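Supplementary Text 2. Reproducibility record for the structural model of the 578-residue chain.

All settings were left at their defaults, and a single model was retained for analysis rather than an ensemble. We include the record here because the model underlies the residue-level annotations in Supplementary Table 4.
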Amino acid sequence: MTQMTTSSSSQPTRQPWSFRKRLLASLPIFLILMGLLSSVSHITSLEWNNEPTDQSMATSTGSTAVSMKPTKTSVSCPSASSSARGLCAASAKRGTYKVAKKVVALTITRPSTGEKQVISVLIRYPKNYPGKAPGIVFMHGAGFGTAFDSFKDVATEMASAGFYSATLDKPTWSTNVLTRDYPASARAYDQVVNYLRKMPAVNSTAVGIYATSESVWISPYVVKEDPKVAFQILLSPMLFSPRMTLGFFVAQDFSIVGAHPGYQGIVRRIFSADMATVGLNNVDIDPISAQSLSIPTFMAYGSKDVMTSQVSGASKVMDLAHKAGNSEFVIRSYPLANHVLNIGDEHEGALADNYLNDIANWSSGIVKGYTQTTPKVGGSTIYQSIGLPYDIHASKSLTFYGFILHGLTLLAMLVVGIFSLVVLIMKLVARLRRKPNPAGIVKGFGQALGVISATTIASALLFIAGLGQIVMRVVNLVWGAAPEPAGMIYWSWYVVQFSTVFVVWAWSRIFAVVIEEGIQRGWFRWLRRVAREPEPKLDVEHGPIVAAHRLGLAYFICVTVAMLLLLLVFAYWGLFLY
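Retained model, structure tokens:
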């Protein structure tokens, strides 16, 4: 770094420090800054025990088919299917009936707030069905869905097999994806269940539910409040708390797409946040219990589903079903299918082979009181790449520190942005009027400040770009795409780490120059003795160290604080772990 002082031609010149002396002054500052930032990275790091890895559960049969047979207590059906009525007319074969539709509007209420929402319910039903038919209500997964754009294929096929199939607008009220009211949603879905039960053409004892993904955090409330639900089909269920489930899902997918372990460490920090401090109280709920597995249950996974902990989930379902004394459960793993059980892309792929046949066969048998004769666990081998993070927990101190640090950093960057605009405008006006620069930042310091700030911001942008690329790859992976070579999402971590070390070294050089000037001006007596500097001549007047005017000095301090806060943000996310 060049000498960053000015002096009058009429004043005695001082002897600048040698390169060696500046290096010796910069080195301890660099080590102190690196030690501080590295300590922050270590303090904020969190370890999860993701063992065991590569778990698998062998299935009893490679087939997903389910065979059902009558029992002594089941509905007695005539041998001739043409004379079957009521529940006996429900078919294991799709396409038995032509499908008609009707739409009704229901008002659902959120008990905790009294809010009301008018929802549409689309009921698909079998034309000319003889007697009272069974029914099924479909429950939404994550996101937003309506009665008309959700579960079209499954609801239609179930109706063609003899079921009254109800899809509805997702109950949301004023909630969003982070503040869902699961107990209230359960009441809304059960309201639709009861609506079906009261329809003259529906058998009130034979209405079940179909829950997928996120809605398996809702279905236990439905079963608890309404034990008369006849059966449940759980597709790609989330069977553990949101914190554990989502932490597992993101950590696993970051690993699969080849993200650098440093990026994977970010997952642990995010999912260890104490979200209750900002009013998000759903993160640690775990509604799945033996009671929720006390009714006949069909659970389906796709072998390419990278969002669910399948071995742990299947084990939990079997354990809770046995505790509930429920022998009518079945677990099926469909080869090549993704989280929504499609083969291929979400929008282009078709549902897994035989899935619709299997659930129609099983559910029609269940409502008749039949029992399954095929093995309970079938299909492709159930696999799970890492263990569930059972030791994950909320860290209040880390969350508080993170909120304060990021809030201050954003505020500082905003102030610097506004300040930079003001300084730029003032500089342009001064040039037009041919007046001196109002900031008056010393040339060497101004250049160094610009380079360091640009490097720091570029590092932040590369860091964000790396994360964005990982997210895009995870999204593609979720919908069935094969992982690509890691590329940027691996090497970008090292580039950002290198650039941050460069920035820290540059700051240490700037601080060393400030100390050099201070010593030679008589500011730091003890440092002057350590540096073996002679007493300054009081009649020697040196020029400004950083800026000739208060405006420039204030601007320099603001930029310095903002950039150092940004380095602390890097440290928070683990970029100073080596």
